[in-house]
Predict the structure.
Amino acid sequence: MNPFWNMSSAAVRKRSDNDEKIATGDQKISPPRSSSAKKQLPSIPKNAVPITKPISPSPSVQPTNGTHASYGPFYLEYSLLAEFTLVVKQKLPGVYVQPSYRSALMWFGVIFIRHGLYQDGVFKFTVYIPDNYPDGECPRLVFDVPVFHPLVDPVSGELDVKRAFTKWRRNHNHIWQVLMYARRIFYKIDTTSPLNPEAAVLYEKDVQLFKSKVVDSVKLCNSHLFDQPKIEDPYAIIFSPWNPVLHDDARERMLAQKKSEEQSKGLHVSGLSWVKPGSVLPFSKEENSLQT
Amino acid sequence: MSQILSASSRLKPVNLHGADSETCTMVFKNHWNQVQRILESHDPFKNTQAKYRSISADEVSAVQNYVEHMLMLLIEEEVTDAAMGPILEYVVSENIMEKLFLWSLRREFTDETKYEQLKMYELLVTQSHQPLLHHKPILKPLMMLLSACSGTSTAVVETKLAVLLNQLCSILAKDPSILELFFHTSEDQGAANFLIFSLLIPFIHREGTVGQQARDALLFIMSLSAENNVVAKHIVEGTFFCPVLATGLSGLYSSLPTKLDDKGEDWHCLLKEDCLQIPELIQFQNSLEFCNAVIQVAHPLIRAQLVDYIFNGFLLPVVAPALHKVTVEEVMTTTAYLDLFLRSVSEPTLLKIFLRFILIHQHEKVHILDTLVSRINTPFRLCVVSLALFRTLIGLHCEDVMLQLILRYLIPCNHVMVTQRSAVREQDCYSACAEKFLSLTPECCALTVSSTGYLERRQTMYSKFRQRTDSDDSKHLYEKDTLMDGDCAEPVDDNYLEYLWEAHENILNCLEDCKVWSAPYDGQNPDPEISLKALMEDNCRRGEFPTFRRATRHYMDSFSSETPSLGGKTLLDLEWDDSYDTGMSPDSGSCSPQPSIDAVLPPEPPHHIQEMKRNAIMFIKGSYIEESDFQDDVMVYRLCAVKDAKDADMQNITDKNDIETNDQFTKPQEGNQTQANYNKNANLNEDTVKTQVKQTLPKVKIQLSPAADDISNMNTLSPDSEEFIARYDDMLNGLKTSTLEDVISPIHSLASPMEEDEDEFDKYSLDLPQAESIPSPFGPRDATIFSNFLPRPQTAPFTGPFISVVLSKLENMLENSLHVNLLLIGIITQLATYPQPLIRSFLLNTNIVFQPSVRSLYQVLASVKQKIEQLAATQQNFPVLLVEAQRYLLCRMDMPNQSADTFTKDNIAANTERKPAAAAAEAPRGVVQKAKEHRANPLLPLSGESKHIQNAMLAAALFPEFLKELAALAQEHSVLHSFHH
């Protein structure tokens, strides 16, 4: 069997309790659009539609032949790739993820908290994506070290993602939203139906004590920063103390690369276009090089 | 000649290193004194006897010997500092070179003498240790010699002259300070002129090494000109360089063969080896490449002038008429040449005029682009050659090309449902579109052949992926690796990874090339509304309505494909130039709210089109058909009249129209002759008649005055006239089915006598299904209902003639020959590689809902699928034949890719390594040629009863691969989109 499939199920610890009762902040994150928008189109007159084209694509097309089914891994793979590109595109501040080497269903990540109660916190986490993505449950997010937080399980370190995504809806929910949510809990603390009741109670009753516990927790997390990654994987995120020999050079190269990219912009012209911006007519661009 | 030979053999460098400079100078002066004595004895100014004495052979050879030795001394003289050596100083002060030149003039100035002198200077210039050309006493006689040689005709002298000029130019290029001197030495003789340059011009188009030397020399000067305004100005204003270069192209072009030898069945474009067989073509290519090189290095002034001359002196007067020659054969040859030229030209400035010529130039009032597009629909080799040309055009990734060919029809977003506009930008996150494409794989094609090369290929692919992973930081690639580690690839996926890989590469290439584009073409930018206006204005100027052509054409397309055509009927699809007859000529703008004079009186189709049609028919039938055979067009006019009358009633527009219709009925001349012209060859069926009916429609509205054919009328109805549009819509809505049937039904009764009338042509046209497929000639009525949502003129959505012709051709996949299909597939996958959301969504987004009249790629493919399934159901031993076809294709694939040089440009050449469908699309040539050579090869022959079945089986074998390619492109787009800004 394909380790691609096995990996995730082996790595994921099953959780028995689903907090379905909790109302969610779902709506703010992804305003519910009618998922059946396509079906609400004015009906297409029959005589104009070729017989072969399905009028409304059913959401879960069952593969009709064997040929079709074997492409499943490709679809999953590319769905996750597309999700990953979306994450990259979002440029969430202080959030970094990296899919693991062994499975695209497991992503390593880290969140840097830059202000607020959890300031200076660096929290490593792992995202587990169900293998029937995007039709399954929402992805799970587990912190390597259980952070002291009302929504983080003090034992497993798992974040209560479900409250934000009661039902994972393809096309509307994306993994970057999970990551954004994971970042937001550290800035805007919610105490309803907590996974860590102690944290919730303290936050409500004794903020000072809560704060100091948070500071301790941040310290604890940061002290484990240089630990070997929990899951051994070539692409796991590893921290190491600053080593000038190694890192100065790398840092310089990163900065230099950015500069040279900016410089080379506009210099390298490989394509062909004589269309003036804003025009839709060919050869509308003025030839200004002639007047030299 | 013996003198020359001896001279060159004796002029071997003597080792003078031992001798000291003083001795050398002494020897030199000594020699000169000897020479001078002989010279003076013949100088009429110094010796009154001179003119009576003839020069003896002894004297000649004595001078020659001395001079040779002197030259050796001069050449070998070395100086350490910047100062002149004593010998050179002596040469300069005594003006020795000029004296020698005058001496040679005094003798008979034969070709041999010229050769000697040229040789002498060549030696001096190339071998001397110190720079000589800076000194006027040396430069001036050289110039005099050169100008004396200018009129010469002996090949030997010409060769030497070219060599010397080449040397001089290369020295110039290295030391531009001499340039000034070159420029002004001749000032004494009058206007400043650049002699070396002028001398080179006659050699520009020369073949062989002389031409090559001269062209190289000119390139030296060209690159000099880039830095030097004076030189550039002189070349542009004072020489005929550019005109000679451009008109030379015309001259060389005219000597190219107008017909090419039969190059085998699947020949479709000129490859390198084809060119090598035609010496004239080699010469032309040399000159074209030279133009390209000049434009690459020369000063912008020269560049602009040359490009201008090539456009006005070559493309317009020579290529344009050649593209519209009378015989299909000639036109095909010209198209192939044009394609070759496009592939040979790499300089954007030069490419630009070629593209400008193809995209916006009109020949006899018809855009060349339209003509080229219409030729895709011909049943001849011209079709594949035209397809190959478009493949080249699309492969350029040029914004202007895509704009004219496709985007201008998509920008207004008329092709999508209004509610779906935003979907244009949507990404296919979950590979749903890929899934839909793959689900079109007919079950009967699911079985695949396992080929021997398959495992190895897979291995190489894997290692390729791995390498990529190591070197490339693109985040997602290692995930492919993961996938492969899993060894999950079942047989059916064997080459899917390759398709993905290739799609990835191609999309990235295209993304890179599209970075310079002016807009993202995402349905928002350019703005659909604003652009629509601009496009309409442009159309108005162009005198046609390409954005808003009738929808009817699509129906015609679907007709021909719905025809159950595999029953062994003659399948000559003589849809000759439909686009001209219906979709493309200005008169078809009847759906457009823009009335124009053209809508009233269709212009005469260009002469060449009519000619070609006639030729085509002769070609098809193998015999000449009298034109009168098609003359029975009175019926059509009657129909038009009936229709007009009806419309007139509906609109309560009375008298004037009656007059008009009567006019039309009684006097079918002039403009109406056009209708006669296209009806006589067109398939006389409902479509044609509907076309007529439809064309008459706007008349009701527009011909408010009898002088409707007056140009001024064009301005009386503003294109944007709200009222006009409203009335137009009303009219469309008013024409319910009943009205239509009334109009159409008489056609049948009228048409029947026509059929009896021995109209042989009908036998070659497709049988069209009668009742079921009669669509509203106005497009689906619902389109007008939707139009109520639109704040602007609703027009029949039209995705452009190119898309429509390519898709209709694709729909006939089973009837097409293999190479037509390969080209079509190649073109469509190339198009699907473009990252612009408008293009991508139109081709690859299967979820988006288009306007009912718009036919999508998915729909066309679905129809092909259906046909394949029909074939599988009816064709005996389908599986056996399919396996054979697959084997055949695999064989082609395993052949060495012979046409790697098909594409001379890097961006296209990058894609040479390919697999089944695509590989064949690029390299279909060598395969069948080989197949011919090795008829005994047990793998290659296909056993289908007929060519027809073979084609169908090959198409059936190609189809699943094509689907995989499209699916792969859809998947890669979903991942790569973020790289596009």
In short: Chain A touches chain B through 73 residues (CB under 8 Å). The mean pLDDT of chain A is 75. DSSP finds eight helices and four strands in chain A.
